[in-house]
Amino acid sequence: MEVSAQHQARILIRGMAWLLGRLLVTLAVIAGISAVLLGGIRANATTAALIYLIAVLVIAAAWGFVESAAASIAAMLCFNHYFLPHLGASTIADPQNWVALLAFLITSITASQLSARAKRRTWEATHRRQEMEKLYALSCALMLTDTSQPVAKAIARQIAHTFDFPAVAFYDRRRQEVQQAGREDLLGADEMLQEAALRGTQFREDSAQLLVTSVRLGGEPVGSLAIKGALPSDAALQSLSNLMAVGLEKAYAQEAANRAEAARQSEELRSTLLDAIAHEFKTPLTSLKAATTALLSDPANRLREYREMITIADEEVNRLTRLLIEAIQTAKVETGKLQPERELQSARSLVSKTVKQMKLQLAGRELRLSAPDRLPLIFVDPELIELAIRQVIENGLKYSPPSTPLAVTVGAAESGVIIAIADQGPGIPESDQERIFDKFYRGSKDRHKVTGTGMGLAIAREILRVHGGGISVQSAPGKGSEFRIFIPAAPEEKIA
User: Fold this and answer.
1) How far apart are CA 148 and CA 95, in angstroms?
2) Which residues pair with 168 in a beta bridge?
3) What is residue 231's DSSP assignment?
4) DSSP conformation letters of 270-333
5) Strand residue runs (E) in 357-405
6) Which CATH number is 131-258 given?
7) CA distances (Å), 131 to each of 166, 182, 481, in order?
8) What are the Cα distances from residue 28, in Å, to 3, 37, 57, 424?
9) Which of 18, 129, 131, 493 has the highest count of CB atoms within 10 angstroms of its CB?
10) Taking 90 as the threshold, does the pLDDT of residue 161 lie above it?
């Protein structure tokens, strides 16, 4: 925490050099004025006194008290030597001249002090204005703090950037963590920060340009701040502390709101999934019940009729199995625990199998499938990819007229496979296209006309994301929609 002695010595030597340089210039100015007064204009004592006084005032306004005092003494000596009796001597014969010299010296020093004071007040006013501007900029930055990163780290970084402090450390008492920012490190600051936060104290060392202070909210310490550099005024420091406390509390409130929203969405998802599963299971169960009841009530049916009913029952059981798998995979998508079990697959076979399994959902709808024989192999989890494709096809079935066909086209891309699913529905407004892949979102025009959970496209996007692929849409009102699924080709080492 100590400032380098070498650095302090360098600063001191540099300051002394500047002061010595200004004193030499001051003496040179007085000497030059004396030369002009004696050799150039041959001025009398009154004129010389006024010119010396003006020179002292100018030096006082430009530099300060030390330089103007040196100028006053030098001007007094020159005035006494060259313009008062006895000329050319450093003695004063007439006692009245003592009064003149004393008045001249007092006037010069007083003027220099007044000038220095005015200059200092101007600097203080400018400094206060700059502090207010920085505090305003900091308040704006804290209101926009990204809560995805540690709050203490974000606050320390904003303070270091706004005030240009070489080093800043902030201790978050609630999380008991210290975060640092800036060009330098504050070594050994942790203990001082914890003590300041615990006791609400302040430590200030102006020579080392170091400050450690507590940060309070409602009189209770919530953290502490350590800064190194040009220290702010007490008023600015108090405002800075208040801003930090408010920013910290705002970040905590935002985090709590995010957790509450995540919990609400999770609960909403569970409820929606249960409703959707109950609805979807009801139809195949009804068909199964009707088929089995018919088989049991009329044992004299012909073998062909038995076979048809058993086939229906078998298909509905398969559908129930798929629905159960989809429910499990959807839950994994939501919890972020989706772990695909990959294997080499043919994109053409996957799409064909998915379409075949959807015979009941199609219910006579025309689906035009186009897929070349030669396509790149893909390295995917077949169940997940089938689920993603099925979600997009079902979306097209829901949002397009029953009399219109669906077109599913499979083609090779530069680095993978593209599966395009086009419908002849009403199209998607541009304002909705950015949001249709969000969870629970449904189109603004059709959300009350078409049943669904608003999860289908979100599930498809997440499945494709974990496979390194993606999904996009091209649509316009009145012109239908085309969803394009991209799946990357299998790595060469997997094919080999």
Assistant:
1) 82
2) 181, 227
3) P
4) HHHHHHHHHHHHHHHHHHHHHHHHHHHH-TT--HHHHHHHHHHHHHHHHHHHHHHHHHHHHHHH
5) 367-370, 377-380
6) 3.30.450.40
7) 17, 19, 56
8) 38, 14, 16, 93
9) 131
10) no
- Sequence-ordered list of residues with C-beta below 8 angstroms from that of 114, at least 6 positions apart, any chain: 60
Kind and range of the H or E run holding 5: helix 5-35
Q: Which residues make beta-bridge pairs with 431?
A: none
Per-residue H/E/C for 461-491: HHHHHHCCCEEEEEECCCCCEEEEEEEEECC
CATH architecture of 259-334: Orthogonal Bundle (1.10)
> CA-CA distances (angstroms) from residue 476 to 36, 153, 405, 439, 461?
88, 45, 18, 22, 21
| Token output for 156 | 């320390």
Q: Supply the DSSP symbol for 458.
A: H
User: 426-478 pLDDT, tens per residue?
Assistant: 888 887 887 888 876 665 555 545 555 567 788 888 889 989 999 999 998 88
Q: What is the largest CA-CA distance in the chain?
A: 153
The DSSP H or E segment spanning 20 is helix 5-35
Write down the mean pLDDT value for the chain. Answer: 77
Say what the pTM is.
0.42
Tokens of 43: 């001025």
Which value, in Å, is the radius of gyration of the alpha carbons in the chain?
42
Q: Would you state the structure tokens that stand for residue 88, as one six-digit string?
A: 């050319």
Homologous superfamily (CATH) of 338-495 is Histidine kinase-like ATPase, C-terminal domain (3.30.565.10)
Spans of all domains in the chain: 5-129, 131-258, 259-334, 338-495
